[in-house]
């Protein structure tokens, strides 16, 4: 993919926002239990080497761990569904957070 | 519809999701005298919805008093820019004077949390019932026919002769019930967007806009989102700017850079940085977008159910035309009418609902999807040329063509030509590529 910022004079420096800063702008209500899971841990352990769920997730929900089974920070989830499609093994268990919980966009 | 037999429910139709497609279907059916209930999982309609930024309104204008709708700015100007990762920009700007006059080419920037709430309210005013913070978890089927829905509320079963599935890009219910398959990841894009707030005057000065006029800017090339099939966008709202990137999940899965990092890089590009400097990010959002074209459309009509909007894969990306809101509304409209006609005959079977599919296929919706169906595959095939070689070649050709030095212009022209021909693989390559993309602007 693209390399670092091109070095072009007289271009304003844009402050990079961390994923934490980004997620901080999102109104969120915690259902208290994860709406995401790995279907079969053995598939992550044995078949997956490249953490495509981690690469594709825009909200730092999926995190690579030793042993191959990612941890899931479900309370970061933006309910975009990208991981559902990204996992080449179809190993993402994905539901909507219950009864209106989860993200609630003010702009959208 | 009291003559419809064998149903103990008070509703004729259940609409799953109060987005654009769902609310249009509910509005259409309620106006036809049906008892309709919309089930929305968010705290209010729109709170779970994300889009780039432009609502196309030809049908919405016919159905509602659109002047009352909460909206941001009309599209007074569109720009298309090729960005190389070295920092070049080559762009085209389109601003016909007619766009400044009513109805502004039916193209308005809106914010979904505001608009969708208002739009669902139009359906409610027409008599539809709206239930929020309730998620439909499954369909109830009897003898292969859809006869209702399960929800996550206590005693959450609800039965009705018809179910309209307007559940969006993540169509969990339709998939679980076997009405469609999950799309392959090369047919789905991930989009991330941030909304940045500015002083209104500053925003209008920066984008040379005034009154309700606004800008819709589109960016392609590896300066926008790396060598992925996709692009960047920027839309001006009243006091905010929506900026984001959209690219294939196939590419996102292989790239160590996460979508938020790709967006950060897009914002650093010399063509983009001056447009977004300052201000404050007030919201970050993300969503999957079905971009599989006509081949990804599921069966739209089932016994007791129809599928509309994003759930039906109704998004057009032709490289030039990026549409979905109008297609969602159009599908909800045709589905609503078909359901009303079928129920008027006391029927809910697939054959009785077939007019939905027929009318959608006869409309611009499927016509356009089929006309531009070749584009996404060709773009993926020609990824390196389109997103990498071409933006760089255009940047270099522009540099050469307009060069100020002590050589005559014909040398500049031949240098510019050679940059382009290097990228295309000579005249023959250029001819082949032109042939491949010949339908892009037609």
In words, what does this structure look like?
The complex is a heterodimer of chains A (108) and B (442). In chain A, 21% of the residues lie in helices and 13% in strands. Chain A is α+β, with helices and mostly antiparallel strands and 108 residues long. In chain A, a hairpin with a 7-residue loop joins strand 3 and strand 4 (71-72). Chain A starts with 18 loop residues before the first helix and ends in a 5-residue tail after the last strand. The mean pLDDT of chain A is 93. Chain B has 442 residues and is an alpha+beta fold. Chain B is 37% helix and 24% strand. In chain B, strands 3, 4, 5, 6, 12, 13, 14, 15 and 16 form a nine-stranded mixed beta sheet that branches. Chain B has a six-stranded mixed beta sheet with strand order 7-2-1-11-18-17. The two termini of chain B are 46 Å apart. The model of chain B is unreliable at 1-7 (pLDDT under 50). Chain A: Residues 68-97 form the 4Fe-4S ferredoxin-type domain.
Name the largest protein-protein interface in this structure: A-B, 53 and 74 residues
Annotated CATH architecture of the domain at 27-96 in chain A: 2-Layer Sandwich
What is the annotated CATH architecture of the largest domain in chain B?
A: 3-Layer(bba) Sandwich
**What integer value in Å does the Rg of chain B equal?**
23 Å
Strand content of chain A: 5-15%
- In quaternary terms, these chains amount to heterodimer
Number of helices of chain B: 16
* β-strand number of chain B: 20
CATH fold label of the largest domain in chain B:
FAD/NAD(P)-binding domain
Q: Based on helices, strands and strand pairing, what is the structural class of chain B?
A: alpha+beta
Overall geometric form of chain B: globular
Residues in helix, % of chain B: 25-40%
Radius of gyration of chain A: 16 Å
Order of adjacent strands in the largest pleated sheet of chain A: 1-6
Distance between the termini of chain A: 28 Å
List unreliable stretches of 5+ residues of chain A: none
> Which CATH C-level class of the domain at 27-96 in chain A is it?
Alpha Beta
Instruction: Give the domain tally of chain B.
Output: 3
State the total count of DSSP E strands of chain A. 6
H/I helix tally of chain A: 4
Protein name (chain B): FAD-dependent oxidoreductase
Pfam family, one (chain B): FAD_oxidored
Keywords (chain B): FAD, Flavoprotein, Oxidoreductase
Organism (chain B): Halapricum hydrolyticum
């Amino acid at each position: 993919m693209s390399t670092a910022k091109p070095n072009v004079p007289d271009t304003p420096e844009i402050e990079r926002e961390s994923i934490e800063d980004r997620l901080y702008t999102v109104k969120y209500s915690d259902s208290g239990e994860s709406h995401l899971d790995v279907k079969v841990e053995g598939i992550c352990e044995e078949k997956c080497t490249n953490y495509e769920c981690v690469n594709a997730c825009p909200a730092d929900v999926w995190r690579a761990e030793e042993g191959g089974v990612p941890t899931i920070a479900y309370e970061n989830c933006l309910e975009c569904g990208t991981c559902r499609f990204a996992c080449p093994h179809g190993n993402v268990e994905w539901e909507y957070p219950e009864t209106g919980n989860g993200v609630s966009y003010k702009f959208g | 519809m009291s003559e419809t037999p064998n149903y103990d429910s008070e509703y004729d139709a259940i609409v799953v999701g109060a987005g654009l497609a769902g609310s249009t279907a509910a509005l259409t059916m309620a106006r036809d005298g049906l008892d309709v209930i919309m089930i929305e999982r968010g705290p209010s309609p729109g709170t779970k919805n994300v889009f780039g930024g432009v609502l196309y309104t030809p049908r919405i204008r016919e159905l509602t008093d659109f002047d009352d709708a909460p909206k941001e700015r009309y599209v007074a100007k569109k720009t298309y820019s090729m960005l190389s990762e070295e920092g070049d920009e080559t762009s085209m700007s389109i601003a016909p004077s007619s766009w400044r006059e009513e109805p502004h080419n039916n193209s308005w920037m809106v914010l979904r949390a505001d608009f969708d709430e208002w739009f669902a309210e139009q359906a409610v005013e027409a008599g539809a019932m709206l239930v929020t913070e309730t998620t439909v978890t499954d369909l109830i089927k009897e003898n292969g026919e859809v006869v209702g829905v399960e929800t996550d509320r206590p005693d959450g079963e609800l039965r009705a002769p018809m179910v309209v599935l307007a559940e969006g890009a993540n169509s969990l219910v339709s998939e679980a019930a076997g009405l469609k398959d999950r799309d392959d990841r090369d047919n789905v894009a991930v989009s991330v967007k941030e909304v940045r707030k500015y002083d209104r005057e500053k925003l209008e000065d920066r984008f040379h806009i005034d009154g309700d006029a606004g800008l819709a800017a589109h960016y392609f090339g590896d300066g926008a989102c790396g060598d992925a099939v996709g692009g960047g966008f920027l839309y001006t709202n009243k006091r905010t700017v929506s900026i984001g990137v959209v690219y294939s999940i196939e590419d996102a899965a292989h790239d160590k850079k996460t979508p938020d990092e790709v967006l950060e890089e897009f914002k650093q590009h010399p063509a983009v940085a001056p447009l977004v400097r300052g201000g404050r990010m007030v919201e970050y959002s993300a969503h999957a977008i079905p971009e599989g074209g006509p081949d990804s459309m599921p069966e739209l009509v089932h016994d007791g159910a129809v599928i509309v909007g994003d759930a039906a894969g109704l998004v057009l990306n032709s490289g030039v035309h990026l549409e979905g809101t109008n297609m969602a509304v159009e599908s909800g409209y045709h589905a609503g009418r078909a359901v009303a006609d079928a129920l008027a005959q006391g029927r809910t079977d697939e054959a009785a609902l077939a007019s939905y599919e027929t009318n959608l296929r006869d409309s611009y919706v499927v016509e356009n999807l089929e006309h531009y169906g070749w584009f996404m595959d060709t773009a993926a095939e020609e990824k390196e040329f389109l997103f990498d070689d071409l933006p760089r070649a255009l940047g270099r050709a522009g540099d050469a063509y307009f060069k100020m030095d002590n050589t005559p212009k014909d040398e500049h022209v031949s240098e510019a030509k050679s940059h382009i021909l290097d990228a295309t693989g000579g005249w023959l390559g250029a001819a082949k590529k032109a042939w491949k993309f010949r339908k892009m602007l037609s």
